[in-house]
Amino acid sequence: MSDLTEQWRERVCAAAAAGTALQVRGGGTKDFYGRTPVGEVFDTRGHAGVVSYEPTELVVTVRAGTPLAELEALVAGSGQMLAFEPPHFGAGATVGGCVAAGLSGPRRATAGALRDFVLGVRVLDGRGEVLSFGGQVMKNVAGYDVSRAIAGSLGTLGVILDVSLKVLPRPVAETTLRFAIGEKEAIDRLNDWGGQPLPVSASVWADGVLQLRLSGAEAAVRAAERKLGGEVLADEAADALWQGVREQTDGFFADAAPGEVLWRLSLPSSAAPVKLPGKQLIEWGGALRWLRSDAPAAAIRERVAALGGHATAFRGADRAGEVFQPLPAPVMAIQRRLKQAFDPAGIFNPGRLYDGI
Amino acid sequence: MNSATDPVVLGEQEADFSAVDKARVVEALARVLPAGALMYDAEELRPYECDGLSAYRQMPMVVALPTTEEQVVAVLKVCSEMGVPVVARGAGTGLSGGALPHAFGVVLSLARFNRILHLDPHARTAVVQPGVRNLAISEAASPHGLYYAPDPSSQIACTIGGNVAENSGGVHCLKYGLTVHNVLRVRGVTIDGEIVEIGNHGLDAPGYDLLALVIGSEGMLEVVTEVTVKLTPKPQLAQCVLAAFDDVIKAGEAVAEIIAAGIIPAGLEMMDQPATAAVEQFVRAGYPLDAKAILLCESDGTPEEVAEEIERVRAVLERSGATEIRVSRDEAERMKFWAGRKAAFPAAGRISPDYYCMDGTIPRKRLGEMLTAIQEMEGKHGLRCINVFHAGDGNLHPLILFDANQEGELERAEAFGADILELSVALGGTITGEHGVGIEKINQMCSQFTRPELTMFFRVKGAFDPRALLNPGKAIPTLNRCAEYGRMRVSNGHVPYPDIPRF
């Protein structure tokens, strides 16, 4: 065990004994996400660097404090990528923060989510124990799949030390098509296309314009382009578009009015238009709908639940209240016991996910 | 009631259920189940005494066959109140003894939960009961040009509930993922009789990712009553390349070269010469018998995509020193290429009275070391082994051949298997890629995980099943068991008390 890990263990044990809250944090680029962060900052950036990278094994293992941009540049050097296209939300994003936030970008609907690419983690739990789950191989069913449960836990279960991620080859060809259509028609078409063997890798609809990215073998992309029609975007414009959607620098996100909350609505892809007050941007083939709205939280959650989904107050909300959709009591009880299992003293990012978790 | 500091709940020692009173349990269950849904006579219980791992057998105390979720809730409440272990069971095709009954427990069969409740071609989802067979989902989705991607070899018989329990894979999971990548939501009942819905018909759910924990949990966390799966568009075309190599190491390197070229084939399988010889006399797939190893590499997608990928694969294989390359010319030939690979298990059964299937996964680059070591182990244990391999994802299925009627051969086969699993861990891999731990590999869990990690697994179980009544004694070894196993290992392979049953 490295000296730094040993120091961290001591710090965790001392915090657990004293009941001191620790705000586990990498670059702080996702400080805006979840309920209000509290506690002494526990900076993970000192634990950085690539542990191993074997392009032919499709696996990279990195320390949590490694800058996300550095990891992406490394795998790009071997023609590979993080297929879940994680948002950075700032220059200092770390791999640990990326995994803890569990957020995925435009490619998610077809390539899979961040959690789908997590093969293993090493974590420091609330008892000061260093625990390894999963590993560096694609298929592994020994023990409960704790590594995927750590993904998206917002640092509330432990300090992520290292993570092993599956990487994939970058597509040979990519093109973006543009269609002028309304919301309902866009949702219908995206679901129709989703049921066909088309190389769709991302979609975004806003303001009466649907843009669709195709990725894959040269022949497949060209054939799909001919079949679907639409207007082809120039490569540079397409790159800027998907970058802007992923990083939320796109106009829709940038133009939020004061008092508006940015809601993240996760829905069945074919769910009807949500018909809530405000402006919308739709991603993930219809399964992710961003809503800028000043409507009351209760009304939004109720409508989204009726459509079979859940709503997150992503930016600009009152973060002392619940940010994530409240859970039914039996599921909440399991969540609380799981938190207790990893962090019995409740020191890691307390209350960041839900009140008391 | 057990508490979080109970040594049973924390996995320090095995729980003792010998005080369970069969007559009282039967009486209580008879009150909540209709006639014909409860079995407790030896004759009726016999079919449940094992799953696909038939070397391990145990008669259950009682078998319950509910037809409704309310009945599942009622059964679990009775068991919870009376402190009775519950073992959920689907089709019983599992290969690790995960559904092996408990002598003082209830087997809860979900066989009557066999309906597809809803199939939505537009949203590409199907809501099914856990006893629905894996292949039945794809058959129902087929008219819409869709299918359910994970295809474990037992897919004609195995159920989706069992797939959820084991996080089953198949030959196409390098490209299409495992069960965990293809299930959106699971509805189930906890031991307390609470109905919980985990996951969502969207692409994510709020809170901790409990779905990831439930999938692959081997019936240890909850009893599944409904599963929503994702359906995938059927590829227009699939074509398969068969390549022969005069050296297994070269074949392994060719696999790495295919991946390095940026190709993720739909399937990438390898067989060694003894495996090829075994299947050839069984199905006559036309495999080259002089090859030390053969690779099967499948490409799927649009015709244009497949043509492009097959050419790239061919070029890589030529560079990698393949001695022969055949590309399937039509669907019949593709099926013929696959017939041999898919017949590997039955072929092992034909050339040997018994066989024992291993399931370790290793980093692909360690394949050569593993195969060399297996050859040495054949000498050490005096048994033959044939090797089939999901080469794309490093998942090995060595089939150890033995004859259970020969004194000591089963024990030697088990020792051989244990050696392979421990080497898998030492090479940076895992003891099980897709078959699960069950009862079969429970001792090797002690080699893969430390005490604090095993304790955390018990704590995770406690978050769902605070009384530790669901499938006790499976998947995660108690610290007591590991201590005993440790002693067994120090004794240099000489197992103490060879005539007592060991699990």
TrEMBL record, chain A:
Entry keyword Heme: no
Top-rank taxon: Bacteria
Record domain FAD-binding PCMH-type: where: 1-170
UniProt source species: Aromatoleum tolulyticum
InterPro entries attached to this UniProt entry: FAD-bd_oxidored_4_C (IPR004113), FAD-bd_PCMH (IPR016166), FAD-bd_PCMH-like_sf (IPR036318), FAD-bd_PCMH_sub2 (IPR016169), FAD-linked_Oxase-like_C (IPR016164), Oxid_FAD_bind_N (IPR006094), Vanillyl_alc_oxidase_C-sub2 (IPR016171)
GO molecular-function terms, A-Z: FAD binding; oxidoreductase activity
Record's keyword terms, sorted: FAD, Flavoprotein, Oxidoreductase
Keyword set includes Flavoprotein: yes
Protein name: Glycolate oxidase FAD binding subunit
UniProt cofactor(s): FAD
TrEMBL record, chain B:
Protein name, entry field: Glycolate oxidase
A UniProt-annotated Pfam family: FAD-oxidase_C
Sections of the chain in a coiled coil: none
Named cofactor requirement(s): FAD
Source organism superkingdom: Bacteria
GO molecular function: FAD binding; oxidoreductase activity
Start and end residues of each FAD-binding PCMH-type domain: 56-234
UniProt keyword list: FAD, Flavoprotein, Oxidoreductase
